[in-house]
Amino acid sequence: MSAAVLGLERVRYETMLYFRQSDTIFFTFLFPVVMLGIFSVAFQGLGNVGAAPDGTGGISRAAYYLPAMIAAGILLSGVQNLAVDIAGEKSDGTLKRLGGTPLPVMSYFIGKMGQVLATSILQIGLLLVVAWLAFGVELPTEPDLWLRFAWIYLLSITTSAVLGIALSAVPRSGRSATAVIIPIVLILQFISGVYIPFDVLPSWLQTIASIFPLKWIAEGMRSVFLPADFASQEPSGSWQLGWIAVVLLIWLVAGLVASRITFRWIRKDG
Questions:
Q1: What one-character-per-residue DSSP string does the chain give?
Q2: Is 268 domain-assigned?
Q3: Residue 239 within any structural domain of the chain
Q4: Per DSSP, what are the bridge partners of residue 59?
Q5: How far apart are CA 177 and CA 87, in angstroms?
Q6: pLDDT per residue over 203-250, tens digit each?
Q7: What is the pLDDT of residue 134?
Q8: Directed axis angle between helix 61-75 and helix 31-42, to 10°?
Q9: What are the contacts of 120-127 at 24+ separation with CB within 8 A?
Q10: pLDDT digits (tens, 9 = 90+) for 41-84
Q11: Number of structural domains found in the chain
Q12: pLDDT tens digit sequence for 144-192
């Protein structure tokens, strides 16, 4: 069988395995949906975001936080999910056993990347349905916005998955993987405009966040789901779509190089 066919079989296997892990389902798959509900309900008493002085206009809290939760979901599905999962497989000997089989490394990666893509699409679909049905969020109707969403999403999820593979080499064991990876992911969410509006952060913290991909993923999603006049609230006064593509491509290449250097079936210290 070719590496591609074996990879597709691995996609099915990895996806089934993903949904059999209750902790993964909650902390990776359902977490953005839960957080969207919490933020929407907790802050609805503050009124709409961007409302006029008389309280009219603006958008609901659910609509405001939707793009942020989509961005967080992409980071969780790619970086956190793969980094913790692969680190665990290294530690428990799964990769060592796979290394003794005819399975090509490329098929293994196709399986992991396919699982991330499949589960992420389901997660975002669920987020959109919950936002629309439960909170009355009006989704974009313009085809060009959905085309923008498509390229930003595909570039973002690919970059996140590659970075997750690269980060899996950092934890020294499967037990320490969550303790190492989750704080990184959590800090990035707080400084990148996911939980706290990006424009209220100190300028020095905005500069630091701009180095990392999540800030650009979140901004890209805001450009799709928020009204066009919200671009004026960005530090640059615009959505910076060109910079979103450039920064994510840089991180994608960096992640590919790091993955190529660090990934192996057996740990050096194993």
A1: --HHHHHHHHHHHHHHHHTT-HHHIIIIIIHHHHHHHHHHHHTGGG--BT--TTS-SSB-HHHHHHHHHHHHHHHIIIIIHHHHHHHHHHHTTHHHHHHTSS--HHHHHHHHHHHHHHHHHHHHHHHHHHHHHHH-PPPP--HHHHHHHHHHHHHHHHHHHHHHHHHTTSSSSHHHHHHHHHHHHHHHHHHTTSSS-GGGS-HHHHHHHTTSHHHHHHHHHHHHHS-GGGGGGSTTSS--HHHHHHHHHHHHHHHHHHHHHH--SS-TT-
A2: no
A3: yes
A4: 49
A5: 6
A6: 999 999 999 999 999 999 999 999 999 999 898 899 999 999 999 999
A7: 94
A8: 160
A9: 120/73, 120/74, 120/77, 120/78, 120/157, 122/29, 123/29, 123/32, 123/33, 123/73, 123/77, 124/70, 124/73, 124/153, 126/33, 127/32, 127/33, 127/36, 127/66, 127/69, 127/70, 127/73
A10: 999 888 899 888 777 788 999 999 999 999 999 999 999 999 99
A11: 1
A12: 999 999 999 999 999 999 999 999 999 988 888 999 999 999 999 999 9
Q: What are 64's strand-pairing partners?
A: none
Instruction: Supply the range of the domain harboring residue 15.
Output: 3-262
Q: Give pLDDT, residue 22.
A: 84
Could you tell me if 68 and 221 are in contact, meaning their C-beta atoms sit under 8 angstroms apart? Answer: yes
Q: Is residue 269 situated within a structural domain?
A: no
Q: Is residue 270 part of a domain?
A: no
How far is Cα 123 from Cα 5, in angstroms, rounded to an integer? Answer: 25
